[in-house]
Task: structure prediction
Amino acid sequence: MRRLPLVLAMLSAAEPGAAAADLLIVLNKSDHEAALVDPVTLKTLAKITTGRGPHEVAVSPDGRLAYVSNYGMYAVFREGERRDEPGNTITVLDLAARAVKATFDLGAYAKPHGIVVSRNGKRLWVTCEGAQAVLELDAGTGKVLAAWKTDQETSHMIVPSVDEAKLFVSNIRSGSATVIDRASGRVTTLPTAAGAEGIDRSLDGGEVWVTNRSDSSISVIDAAHDTVVAKIASGGEMPIRVKFTPDGTQAWVSNARSNAVTILDAKSRRPIETIPVGAMPVGIQMSPDGRRAYVANTNDDLVTVIDVETRKVVGTFTTGNEPDGMAWVPERAPDRAGSTKR
Result:
C-alpha cells in the first residue's frame, strides 16, 4: 500500500488537546512487543518486549502502567503464516522506565485476550479463551480474585458497564455475547450472530454494540435489560472492532475484508461514510479529545491516522510486524519530584 505523507500542519503539537507528552501504545503481534509512539510526530520512542503474540493492552488511570495480554497467536490473518501457541501471561509495563515491571502467570487460564482496567486502577478484567472464562485480577499482584465461566467458544473482547457492575463479553465461535453480574456471579448469554468479536458501549452506557464478523452485522444490546434490541449492517465485510467516539455521536467499525473503516451515526445507527485504509484493519484507538482516530492495519504493518472531523486520512506510520491492539496513555501529572518522565 502507498504510504501517505504526514500532514504536519494538521498534527501540530500546538493543536489544542494534542499534548506531546501523551503516548500511543501499539502492539506488534508478530514481533512480540509493545511500541511507544508519540501520537503527534508519529515517531516510535521505544519498544518493549512482551510475551508471545500480544493482542490487547489496557492502561492504568494514572498512566503509569500498561497491561498486555499475551494471547499466543500471531500472523492471525496471514494465510500459511499463522502460529497458534496458546499463551497464559500478562505483561505489566512500567511506562516511566519503559521496561517490564512484572509478568502475571495465569496458569491454566490460557489465551488471555480482551483486557480492561477498572476506573480506580485496582482491578483487571481479562477474557481467557482457552478456559472459556473471564477473570478479575488484583492489578497490583495479578492474583485471581474471581473467575466466571462463560461456557462459550472464543470469549474474546470485554467492556464493563458504566458503573462496572456488569461485564459484557463477545464470543466469536459461539456467535454470542455474555453478560456477567459481578456481585451475584450470574452469567447470561445472548445470541447475536456468527463471529461476535468486537464490543464497545455507548457514551451513556445504555447500549453495547457487538460486531459479528461472519455476518457483516452489528448487534445492539440494551445494557440495562440484557437483551438484543437490533441488528444493523456493519457497512462492509468482516467487522472486527467497533469504537465509539469520545463524544458518543459516532461508532467507527473496522471492516477487515473491505480494507476500510465505516462510520455510523450512533443515534440513527445509519452509515455516514466509509474510509479506505490499509490491508486488514483491526484495532481502532481514538485520541481522548476526539480529534484523531488511529487504525491498525495488520497485514500492511501500517497504522492509519484519520482526522475525525473531516474524515480524511492525514498520515500513516509503521511500528513493526502485525500491529493490532492499541491504547492511549494520557500525559501524567508531575510527581513530587517534578518528574513526568516515561
In short: The chain has a mean pLDDT of 92. Residues 59 and 311 are 27 Å apart (CA to CA).
